Amino acid sequence: MDVGRRVLGLVTPAPERTVAALHGTEAPAPGLNPRELIFLQHIRWFGTTGSLLMAFGALGVGAQPVRQNPTFGIPVLSLPARMQTSAIAVTMIGTVIVVLAWLLLGRYAVGRFADGTPPRRLSRGQLDRTLLLWIIPLAVAPPMFSQDIYSYLAQGEIAHRGLDPYALGPEPALGRDHVLTNSVPNIWKSTPAPYGPLFVWCSRGIAAVAGDNIVAGIWLHRALALGGVALIVWALPRLARRCGVAAVSALWLGAANPLLLFHLVAGVHNEALMLGLMLAGMELALHAIESAAPIRGTNLTLLIGGCAIIALSSTIKIPSLVALGFVGMALARRWGHGWRGVLAAAAATGGIALTTTLLITTASGLGFGWVHTLGAANAVRSWMSLPTLIGILTGFGGVVLGLGDHTTAVLNITRPIAAILAMFVTLRMLLAVYTGRLHPVGAFGVAMGSVILLFPVVQPWYLLWAVTPLAAWATLPAFRIPTIALSALVSVILMPRGAEFTVFQIVAAAAATVVVVAGMIIATRTVLPWRVDDAGAPKPFPHRTPYAERP
């Protein structure tokens, strides 16, 4: 009996069976009929309208730089900044519209029709064009939902000056009055870079080109993020086909997800490049492992290259290295030979990862200081993190009961326990891959889901660490419905730049959003498929001649 089955024999395999129940294959589906094509066009432009509104509102409430604001003094472009409450409302309205458009688009990507007929799906080209139209306005807008981009710029400038970004934060290295330091959030002004050497190396290159020009630096970082999104769009449908999932279903949930549009494109987060490299590396490596041909020649090159690309992604943010473990376990399953196969696969993938990391660290000249700053983000207490939330609530309860604030002490207990639980789930998923119970993509997604749930700090865009791989594997409503609901909810509840606004501004903007969006739904009731039966068999529009039948 091999090692995986021996270890699994110690515990019940029920969790693997439960996880496997999230997966189902998706049969090929016909394209959209003429009426649905009309709806698709309207959905596409509805979402584009939302993106344009977000981009315009961001001129007033986006994460604009403290200095070098390119819209300052320009008559039309500076207007939103002087009408902040209105700008918040415009941005929030646009946000809700994009989310609603995404949900409507899902009917033609994954949904089933009310009359029980099989779904008709939009084509890959139709989805790509829709995604591109929604991305363009956000790609040219000021940063939104986060000010992390200014930390990226400052860290790049520190490295460009020959200083150690893993020992010095922006304020100690550049000075309090430096143009880049001014826009860094106060909590991070003295914090060294928590990112791996590849990303800081890229930031240093951007600093060498852009210098102190903040706008140029933002554009270059956004180009890097868009490159990561392009890799996600390339890899996701290929991984989906390996799992028997429709490519457009995976792309809709993983790449067209508002979390990705708002935080990786508009927010310019380095997760875009990390996820893109990670998924691309998995696709290349699994192509070699799952091929019927021997692992030599081209397949060997793909395997080594895929593992190296995953290791590259981990030199942006370390959690993506988990993907290499699942590639290694898939390789061990192919090789067989029990413990020997597992150890050989671990040695091979680990050797590639170590070599890649050493090459990047040496070539960049940044050293290994990044290893000591990986926990810098733990200073933030995130309500989305389960162990942190338990600690915060317990500490608050202690204050209410007059026992004192013991939040820090409780966090010192909950966070290690959560880390052990995450390691246990990850180990179970690795063994499930070895025994053939789960596909590596699905098992990796479940493991990353547990890591995110139990991580000390969870930001909204961290959800994409699990959503993107699971979008290529998990198809059943038990996964999709909660994921869609959570993605939509988290996307609409965040403020445009993550900064503080007055209660009056938020309430007024939210009220305006409800009124305007409700009015838009009423106004578009005959041109958008708001009703469930709108997605079914072809029917004429009420009191109108179908577009396809017009001369």
TrEMBL record:
<keyword id="KW-0472">Membrane</keyword>
<feature type="transmembrane region" description="Helical">
    <location>
        <begin position="441"/>
        <end position="464"/>
    </location>
</feature>
<feature type="transmembrane region" description="Helical">
    <location>
        <begin position="86"/>
        <end position="110"/>
    </location>
</feature>
<dbReference type="Pfam" id="PF26314">
    <property type="entry name" value="MptA_B_family"/>
</dbReference>
<feature type="transmembrane region" description="Helical">
    <location>
        <begin position="45"/>
        <end position="66"/>
    </location>
</feature>
<feature type="transmembrane region" description="Helical">
    <location>
        <begin position="131"/>
        <end position="153"/>
    </location>
</feature>
<feature type="transmembrane region" description="Helical">
    <location>
        <begin position="343"/>
        <end position="371"/>
    </location>
</feature>
<dbReference type="GO" id="GO:0016757">
    <property type="term" value="F:glycosyltransferase activity"/>
</dbReference>
<keyword id="KW-0808">Transferase</keyword>
<feature type="transmembrane region" description="Helical">
    <location>
        <begin position="383"/>
        <end position="404"/>
    </location>
</feature>
<comment type="similarity">
    <text>Belongs to the MptA/B family.</text>
</comment>
<feature type="transmembrane region" description="Helical">
    <location>
        <begin position="218"/>
        <end position="236"/>
    </location>
</feature>
<dbReference type="InterPro" id="IPR049829">
    <property type="entry name" value="MptA/B-like"/>
</dbReference>
<keyword id="KW-1133">Transmembrane helix</keyword>
<protein>
    <submittedName>
        <fullName>Polyprenol phosphomannose-dependent alpha 1,6 mannosyltransferase MptB</fullName>
    </submittedName>
</protein>
<feature type="transmembrane region" description="Helical">
    <location>
        <begin position="501"/>
        <end position="523"/>
    </location>
</feature>
<feature type="transmembrane region" description="Helical">
    <location>
        <begin position="470"/>
        <end position="494"/>
    </location>
</feature>
<feature type="transmembrane region" description="Helical">
    <location>
        <begin position="416"/>
        <end position="434"/>
    </location>
</feature>
<feature type="transmembrane region" description="Helical">
    <location>
        <begin position="301"/>
        <end position="331"/>
    </location>
</feature>
<keyword id="KW-0328">Glycosyltransferase</keyword>
<feature type="transmembrane region" description="Helical">
    <location>
        <begin position="272"/>
        <end position="289"/>
    </location>
</feature>
<feature type="transmembrane region" description="Helical">
    <location>
        <begin position="243"/>
        <end position="266"/>
    </location>
</feature>
<keyword id="KW-0812">Transmembrane</keyword>
